[in-house]
Amino acid sequence: MKIKDKNLEELKDIAKEIRELLIDVVSKNGGHLASNLGVVELTIALHYIFNSPEDIMLWDVGHQAYVHKILTGREERFPTIRKKGGLTPFTNPNESIHDGFISGHAGNTLSAALGIHEAKKNNKVIAIIGDAALANGESLEAINNISEKDKNLIIVLNDNEHSIGENVGALSKYMSKIMGKKSYNDFKNEVELLVRKVIFGNSVADFIKRLEHTVKYFFNPGNFFEELGIHYIGPVDGHNLKELISTFEDVKDMEGPVIVHIKTEKGKGYKFAEQNREKFHGISPFDIKTGETCKKNESYSQLFGNKLVELGEKNSEIIAITAGMIKGTGLDKFFEKYPKRSYDVGIAEMHAVTFAGGLAIKGKKPVVAIYSTFLQRAYDQLIHDIALQNLPVLFILDRAGIVGEDGPTHNGIFDIAYLQSIPNIRIMAPFSKEDLEKSLEFAVNDKSGPIAIRIPRDSSFCLNVGFEYGKWQEIKKGNEYLVIAVGSMLKELLIIEKELNKNNVYPTIVGVNFINPLDEKYILENFVKYEKIFILEEGILHGGFSSKILEFLNDKNINKIIHRIGIEGFVEHGKRDEILTDLGLKGKKLVDRLLKK
Ligand SMILES: Cc1ncc(C[n+]2csc(CCOP(=O)(O)OP(=O)(O)O)c2C)c(N)n1
Ligand SMILES: CC(=O)[C@@H](O)[C@H](O)COP(=O)(O)O
Ligand SMILES: [Mg+2]
After folding, report:
1. Taking 90 as the threshold, does the pLDDT of residue 534 lie above it?
2. Which residue ranges run through the membrane (predicted)?
3. Residue with the nearest Cα to atom 1 of ligand 2?
4. Exposure of 480 in the CB half-sphere (CA atoms within 13 A)
5. pLDDT tens for each residue of 299-335
């Protein structure tokens, strides 16, 4: 879509058209709707004033960059967004020269913007960041650095007073306070009026006095940033194209780092998204007329949340912690029922982990529910603050494995590899609804050290077999083949079992919940009996579960070939089932892999 030669009325029409396109495509593909509806005018104004790609734009998280994609030559492909082989869900320089940097995880943009600016001093760098992502630790580290230098960097703060749900924290409260103050454009108008009065006869002294007062009032709102050496401009109405354009026109040639505070409404222009911003932050396909999505079976996240509510009743030491993902992790019911034992720390995974350490060292039982991919942010805290002191914190690693449409930034495929090398952390991967419930019962009452429980982005499946600490479960006794399935992979294996039988293969099937500690007894007693051994895991193979078994066999001098089926390299976006199938972890491809060897 071309916008440079348009007048204001035409730009307003384009905004309307883009909103319709966003609603239409997201209703079919699912995606991040509310944030995008909120930045339609903002993105148009940015592209109207600045010249991408010479002026380099970076979008924090990138979930709100759909409009940017539409305005930078990707309009035709926009209906493919989040689909396998289609446009990616966030920004990616491999997709377009208009995407300044990879995004997906909150808080990397300001650091990347500063780096890009240092490398390309003649280009303008514009970093667009949300109010919740601004409070992320990495963002604040970057601000600290940016403000020290005289950088010609433009930070656009898109303040909709929401994270996925309500925003939390002191910075958010501060921003809300200044948002109520007189707007940047009111200030401009006031100055204009004063100048006119001087011209038409008021005394210069009076003019200067009043100007000083106005300027003070104007700068006060953003005092925090001003004190840090970053010019503050705002607040600006993020849905008023005229105001936005005139503001960016002013900002374009300003010297030094500047933060432009834009006030937007998440979900703007679609009734259901305005009424329920959280639901429409990231939504599965929905009916445009009613705003309803189709009902799905209970997810593992919901199951975890429900079980924790029950366990919280019996054990008052349980404390729930999330880093900005109350609903996604299934903790909403616990938060509702036990508000005093619930903490949403914002997008602050590092803090969440060490905060839990503090609680645990004084006898509480913190349950920290974070998506597997986001826990990567807190690796040092896991080692230094938790494992080294062997603190009994329970980590719920949600979205462990393939997440689907959110793609490579969000797949939780590294956790087994990154956790199992850390001493003291036990890792579990429940394989069914019942197994997850029993795992939680065990883990919340365990006081001996940290435990991480992996749960997949999937609806739960029922299988009630035994549960014993450290023990793998033999689900079926067969002959010749031994197939060991970790967590989520057991369901996939049981689904295709009949196909194997049709080919005269009757494997012994083992469900692995306990990744660490290994069930050494089972390995030592059984591996030698089988001609073929397969291990299935929904995680990276290098350094993963099967690697650990190979090390164990090596150390015990057992010479066995193990066929390892898992993930290699980064995995692109698409439906979870499609991706698992492509990877040979599901369906016919899995059958083929098990029969081929
Ligand atoms: C490190 C990290 N933690 C959590 C998330 C999940 N997440 C994605 S968007 C979001 C809220 C972002 O809010 P804000 O920055 O204000 O942008 P808005 O959606 O309101 O435009 C969260 C918590 C993430 N992407 N990265
Ligand atoms: C952009 C982001 O990081 C989140 O909005 C994420 O997409 C949520 O994923 P789920 O939809 O799996 O909760
Ligand atoms: Mg926000």
Report:
1. yes
2. none
3. 63
4. 9
5. 999 999 999 999 999 999 999 999 999 999 999 999 9
Q: What is the DSSP string of 336-377?
A: HH-GGGEEE--S-HHHHHHHHHHHHHTT-EEEEEEEHHHHGG
Q: Please give the number of the atom of ligand 2 that sits closest to the Cα of 61.
A: 1
Q: Given ligand 1 and candidates 64, 164, 329, 376, which is best to mutate, with the most ligand atoms within 8 Å of its CB?
A: 164
Residue count of the chain: 597
The H-or-E segment that residue 564 falls in is strand 562-567
Following DSSP, what letter does each residue of 382-431 receive, concatenated? Answer: IIIIIITTT--PEEEEET-B--STTGGGT-B-SHHHHHHTSTT-EEE---
Q: What percentage of the chain has pLDDT greater than the value 70? A: 94
Q: Which residues are catalytic?
A: 266, 349, 377
Structure tokens at 519: 């069930």
Nearest-atom index, ligand 1, CA of 131: 16
Ligand 1 lining (C-beta closer than 6 Å): 35, 61, 63-64, 105-106, 130-133, 158, 160, 162-164, 266, 323-325, 347, 349, 374, 377
- Tokens standing for residue 413: 């495929």
Q: Give the mean pLDDT of 391-409.
A: 98
Q: How far apart are CA 401 and CA 397, in angstroms?
A: 10
pLDDT in tens, 555-596: 999 999 999 999 999 999 999 999 999 999 999 999 999 998
Tokens of 591: 């059958």
Pairing between β-strand 508-512 and β-strand 473-476 as defined by DSSP bridges: antiparallel
Identify the residue whose C-alpha is closest to ligand 2 atom 8: 282
* Rounded distance between C-alpha atoms, residue 484 and residue 230, angstroms: 57
User: Is 133 marked as a binding-site residue?
Assistant: yes
Question: Per residue in 434-475, pLDDT tens?
Answer: 999 999 999 999 999 999 999 999 998 999 999 999 999 999
In contact, 345 and 321? CB cutoff 8 Å: yes
Q: Which two tokens stand for residue 96?
A: 């377009």
Residues with Cβ < 8 Å from 513, sequence gap 6 or more? Answer: 428, 429, 430, 431, 435, 439, 467, 472, 473, 487
Residue 106 annotated as lining a ligand binding site: yes
Per residue in 210-245, pLDDT (tens digit) is: 555 455 545 556 688 888 889 999 999 999 999 999
Atom of ligand 2 nearest to the CA of 403: 12
From the CA of 105, the nearest ligand is 1
The pLDDT of residue 226:
87
pLDDT value, residue 207: 55
Q: Whose CA is nearest to atom 13 of ligand 1?
A: 163
- How crowded is the C-beta side of 133, counted as CA atoms within 13 Å? 27
- Residue 203: DSSP 8-state: -
47 annotated among ligand-binding-site residues: no
Rg (alpha carbons) of the chain, rounded to whole number:
27
ipTM for the whole complex: 0.99
